[in-house]
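step=encode ok
step=design start
structure_in=
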């Protein structure tokens, strides 16, 4: 993804440092205590882009703690700016790429994972980089609390089909699937991402699914 450079990136990061999760691997197993209210459930988004989705979610759901993960240096400061503008006390930002979720989160630590418009990595040789690749799913499962779900949405029909196969290969239960989120019953509570706004404005239908990462009785 090509991005325009952000002027004063370092100054913005310093100004919004309260929202940066410093040394995130060291927080493994103790993320809840990094938030103002450690009793709240913990939701993660991997690949937050400029942060529209995660910041809106944090604003709308003060009863949930959120972690945004974005490795793109030219855009992750945008998440910090929004978090500061909204004065969010329930959002932290990991300014890095996650390769294996288990490096950052302990067993059972996450109550929900969001993947929104993840990079498709279309070439077969790069399939392992897709955020819905079966080994990535295995890592999410390990970090999931009982009842935790994965929510994935994308404009990319091929990536969606691939992801459904990967989810089935892991034996995960699909709670629901829609090929047209904006004209589905789930549209009511949907919060749009920057990419979602761009693609739906062009008339592209949006795919979305929820899968159970860990059953309550496991
Ligand atoms: C196509 S953009 C979508 C951004 C946003 N979710 C949206 O829907 O507008 C994908 C983003 O995921 C980020 N990304 C990809 N893999 C990542 C990873 N493993 N960890 C953190 N960020 C990642 C990229 O840097 C990029 O900003």
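sequence_out=
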């Amino acid at each position: 993804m090509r991005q325009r450079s952000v002027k004063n990136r370092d100054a913005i990061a310093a100004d919004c440092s309260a929202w940066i999760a410093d040394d995130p691997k060291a927080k493994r197993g103790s993320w809840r205590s990094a938030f103002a209210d450690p009793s709240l459930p913990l939701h993660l988004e991997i690949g937050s882009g400029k942060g529209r989705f995660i910041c809106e979610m944090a604003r709308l759901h003060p009863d949930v703690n959120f972690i945004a993960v974005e490795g793109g240096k030219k855009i992750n400061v945008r998440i910090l700016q929004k978090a500061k503008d909204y004065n969010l006390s329930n959002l932290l930002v990991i300014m890095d790429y996650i390769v294996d979720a288990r490096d950052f989160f302990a067993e059972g630590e996450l109550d929900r994972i969001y993947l929104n418009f993840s990079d498709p990595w279309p070439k077969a040789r790069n399939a392992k980089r897709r955020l819905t690749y079966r080994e990535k799913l295995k890592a999410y499962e390990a970090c999931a609390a009982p009842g935790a779900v994965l929510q994935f949405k994308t404009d990319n029909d091929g990536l969606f089909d691939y992801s459904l196969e990967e989810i089935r290969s892991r034996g995960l239960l699909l709670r629901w699937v829609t090929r047209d989120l904006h004209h589905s019953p789930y549209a009511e509570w949907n919060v749009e991402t920057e990419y979602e706004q761009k693609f739906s404005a062009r008339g592209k239908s949006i795919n979305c699914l929820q899968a159970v990462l860990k059953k309550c009785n496991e």
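step=design ok
step=annotate ok -> The radius of gyration is 17 Å.
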